Amino acid sequence: MRTALHPIGILIGHTLPVLILAMLYASMLSVVHPLLSAESINAWIILGSVVLITASGSTAYALIAWRQGRMIHPLYAAVTFLVYVPVFWGIAENMSTLFPWDIPRWMIPEDAELYAFRLLCIPLAHALLVLVISSLRKEERGSPLRDLLIAAGIPIGVFLFVQVIEPFRRSSDFEQHAWVVVMVTLVIGFLFFLMRGVVSLVQRAGKGSAVVGIVLRTLIALVFPLLGLAFNNGLLTGSFREVNGIFGDLSHPAFYIIAILNAAVVIWPSSSNMRIRMVQFILRAIGYAYVLYFFVLFLPLLPVSIVAIIAIGIGFLLLAPILLFAVQSVLLYRDLRFLAARHSRINLLGLFAGCLLLIPAAIVIRYLHHRTVLHSALHHVYESDPSDPVKPLDEAALASVFDQVDANRSRGRGPNTHNTPFLTPLYNRIVLDNLTISEEKLATLRAVFLNEPTPVLTSARRSPNSSSTSVDTVLVRSTYDAEQQVWRSQVDLRVINSGRGQEEFVTDIALPEGAWITDHYLVIEGDTVPGILAEKKAAMWVYNNIVNYRRDPSIMRYTAPGHVQLRVFPVEAHDMRASGFELIHKEGLQLVLGADTVQLADHAHDAVAVIAAEGGGAAYVPSAVKATLPRVRRQPHFHFVVDGSEAQRGMRSRVIDRIATYIAKEQLDPARITMHIADAYGESLAYGPDALAAFEHHVGQGGFFSDRVIRKVINNACSHPTAEAPVIVIVPSLPANDDANIGVLLDDLSDIAKCLPEGDSFFVLDENPSPTQRWFSNPSRGSNGGSIPSALPEVLVLSFPDGPCQYLRNTPTAEIIVDPIHMDNLPPRLSGTWQDALALEARWRAFQLRGPSGEAGWSTLVRGAFQAQVLTPLTAWMCVENDAQRNVLLKKQEEILNGDPSLDANDQDLTNMSEPGILWMLVPVLLWIILGRRTRA
Questions:
Q1: Distances 887 to 487, 530, 534, 551, 782 between C-alpha atoms, Å
Q2: 645 and 590 within one domain
Q3: Which of 77, 447, 712, 897 could anchor a disulfide with 386, C-beta 3.0 to 4.6 Å?
Q4: How does pLDDT run across 248-299, given as a tens digit for each residue?
Q5: Is the Cβ–Cβ distance between 491 and 685 less than 8 Å?
Q6: How many domains does the chain have?
Q7: Which of 466, 470, 464 is CA-nearest to residue 576?
Q8: Half-sphere exposure (CA, 13 Å, Cβ side) for 681?
Q9: What CA–CA distance (Å, rounded) separates 857 from 379?
Q10: Residue 461 and residue 560 in contact, taking contact as beta carbons nearer than 8 Å
């Protein structure tokens, strides 16, 4: 055990934890430092200086001692205790100064207050080990009975003092501080003698000592861990049920299984046979990772171990992980010495490291598998081209991953005690990129792949304005830029709250095509705060958190194609707020602001010719050009979408009869009909006997994912326009009164359906006598008609000499047309011109179609919008009150940009590294149990 005094222990047990602590707090302070007072900043400087100077001195001492070949001197341990015990006391006394309550809690990690206690306990534990080993002279076995009796006498003496002497005393303030010093000394002494006694007992030889050693190892390695898990998980009866989950969610069966297996190899007497001893060494090294996990988890509880022992009688369970760490460390050390007689120490240490990493590697591999499965599912549903062939995913693996993700989401919604310490944050980091999945999105994945109940799609994405807030005045200024031949219009709003309380102002702005918002501002306490163009999900996350704290944010974002929402909070009762934004547009237009309409610019400079986008693939067709285009009616091509899931196999014959009857009744041309068998993956066939037979014998996988085949139809129609227009007919298997009968439709399907010039309607052919017409913008409602119209609405046709015809809506307003097939990548640098905005809009629409769009992926579009400073459906303009809010926004934005675009932002309970706040929760729980016991007594 003398090797435990090697100086490398200082680098691992002291330098490394302090470096991690410095990085964690530096990351936090880089965000919130603008909100800290001078007193708080000074407190942080003092704390950081003391810790870093101590760690630097310890590191220098370790390097010098290592170079000179000397062991750690016991004086190092004494100095460590003399420094860090007052540091702990200072942190506890100045907690409100280091972490002021006026800093919003969502800006800092959930358990930032506990970082110092958790990480700085590691140097103290190492110092305690140094004291214990140094007190045992070389080859000395010690006197374990004496040490254990002294350790047991300390809590007994404290208990007697509190019960017998303390009630008759009156203490001064000085004496109270003195008793704090005494209690700290007693705790250190208790832990020292306890650890020394256990280490001595494990090292003793002889028959009697062997029997005692087996009994001791059985208690420490098997009984105490299982009791501790049962205690934490609420399996014990009586008062102990109140502490369910106090140390986190440790209810997974693997905790019990590994505890039993590890106990078996610890209790197993060490063999003198070299091969058996090697097996014991390997198994003990594998279980050592489990021991280290609980050692780090329970290490901060050592100072309250005496209190727990006195208060509830089983407080010794808090010491079980620390004692098991000591016992298993001694066994591993003795195994290593025994095996070193025939094997190289370097090889043995390498074997130990490999075995130690086995359990963590298995956990990480499992999490990486979950990541692969989950991201494959997200890519299939939300990102992949529906025309591409897909290899079916493993439903059993998907179900397991969805359950795990849902469990983590549930933990994130509740208190931190429902997290599995260290593992839940690791899972969120590896699998979810420190983000999350919304409840609706997870339900959609389950419906698509597992055929679970389909989430009902609603179209109400625009929130209504508060009845008491309204626009008071609107001021507009339009300036014509002759160089770019565009208008720049400034819109200044004054909003008023006529109600009696604080309200949020919300209004919807209808933007015509070819107009984009290029700036935004909000007046906060007399200062005009310019807007920040940020990633949309990050901005919404920050906005919601700020609003919860009643601060001053505003946000502008797209809620649907051509619809921008402005939110300002708060507007005080009978008060007025000022905000505004800037637009860039090609023609004079009427801007609709909620119930108000304002004219921006005139029509003197309106374009009279088609304007092609730089880089190709898109063009702006002004209203003057549309007025000259010929009108045509395209021929309908019917697309029958049927439910191919296994759950509805029994309804397939009825669906086939319904389709055949309708085709015969309406005398539809089979050559203009395509049949789409929709399950999780989908199959499209030309209508005929083969298609009907394929549907009847189709082996369904997952649920009725109608969105995928419908999206495929729309994508093809908009990417390759022809003289035929799609008419989508869903033929459900479920009854007409079932909201899930149209299958799973994603909420952005209505956005891409806007590219259909005839409109975004579809039809439902259920058991009712006549089909129902519905719209993707509101698919749950429809209107009954006699039949599906064979004559489609007129559209405008625009012909190009070197390309296919483009079909436009038969409306007088300007329109943007997109050709994703002939679209180049975004230019490397955007400068904020109208052409840049047109290029971004075109590539966004191509990206929505999920077809060929070059390298213009999600992150490219977001960063392109940042360069051009143009609001797009992927970004949001936001005004914040201070630099701290800005820092949080930028940090969250970087997390989202580095993650999967299909993931969602959420609160910090899920995205930040967080462990259970056990130090703070222990005291009220102990008091609860004590009072409960006394009441029953």
A1: 33, 15, 12, 16, 47
A2: no
A3: 712
A4: 888 889 999 999 999 999 999 999 999 999 999 999 999 999 999 998 888 8
A5: no
A6: 4
A7: 470
A8: 15
A9: 13
A10: yes
Task: State residue 137's pLDDT score.
Answer: 65
Look up residue 114 and give its two tokens: 């506990």
Q: Which of 749, 774, 796 is the last residue of a domain?
A: 796
N-term to C-term CA, the chain:
48
Cβ atoms of 706 and 641 closer than 8 Å: yes
Q: Residue 129: CA atoms inside 13 Å, Cβ hemisphere, count?
A: 25
Question: What SS3 state is found at 870?
Answer: coil
Is residue 222 a part of any domain in this protein?
Answer: no
Contacts of 812 (CB under 8 A, 6+ apart): 623, 626, 627
The lowest-confidence range among 76-80, 204-208, 298-302 is: 204-208
Mean pLDDT score across all residues of the chain: 84
Residue 838 contacts residue 868 (beta carbons within 8 Å): no
CA 181 from chain center: how many Å? 43
Cα 92 from chain centroid? 31
Q: What is the DSSP string of 286-347?
A: HHHHHHHHHHHHHGGGGGGHHHHHHHHS-GGGGGHHHHHHHHHHHHHHHHHHHHTTTS-HHH
Dist CA 800 CA 806 (whole Å):
8
Class of residue 411 by CB neighbours under 10 A (exposed 0-12, middle 13-18, buried 19+): buried
| Same domain for 155 and 130 | no
Q: What is the DSSP string of 418-441?
A: GS-TTHHHHHHHHHHTT-B--HHH
Q: How far apart are CA 407 and CA 401, in angstroms?
A: 10
pLDDT tens, position by position, 185-216? 777 777 777 777 777 766 665 455 677 778 88
Query: How much is the pLDDT for 458?
Result: 47
Residues 705 and 640 in one domain: yes
DSSP secondary structure, 588-632, as one string: -EEEEETTEEEEES-STT---S-EEPTTSSEEEE-HHHHTTSPEE
**pLDDT of 785 higher than 70:** no
C-alpha span between 128 and 325 (Å, rounded): 13
Same domain? For 7 and 126 the reply is yes
Return the residue matching tokens 């003795």: 334
User: And the tokens for 890?
Assistant: 């930028």
Amino acid at 742: I
In a domain, 776, yes or no: yes
On whether the CB atoms of residues 545 and 534 are closer than 8 A, the answer is no
- Radius of gyration of the chain, Cα coordinates, nearest whole angstrom: 35
Q: Do residue 527 and residue 476 come from a single domain?
A: yes
Q: Domain containing 511: what range?
A: 469-606
Which residue type is seen at 618? A
- Strand, coil or helix: 644: coil
Q: Looking at the structure, do residues 584 and 659 belong to the same domain, yes or no?
A: no
Write the pLDDT tens digit of every residue in 676-730: 999 999 999 999 999 999 999 999 999 999 999 999 999 999 988 999 999 999 9
| 778-784 and 795-800 strand pairing | unpaired
Can you count the helices (H) and strands (E) in the chain?
A: 30, 25
Among residues 678, 655, 663, 657, the alpha carbon closest in space to that of 733 is found at: 655
Strand 673-678 vs strand 635-643: parallel, antiparallel, or unpaired?
A: parallel
Q: Tell which residue, 110, 116, 115, has the closest CA to residue 414.
A: 110
CATH of the domain at 772: 3.40.50
Kindly state the tokens that stand for 602: 């005139």
Residue 921 pLDDT exceeds 50: no
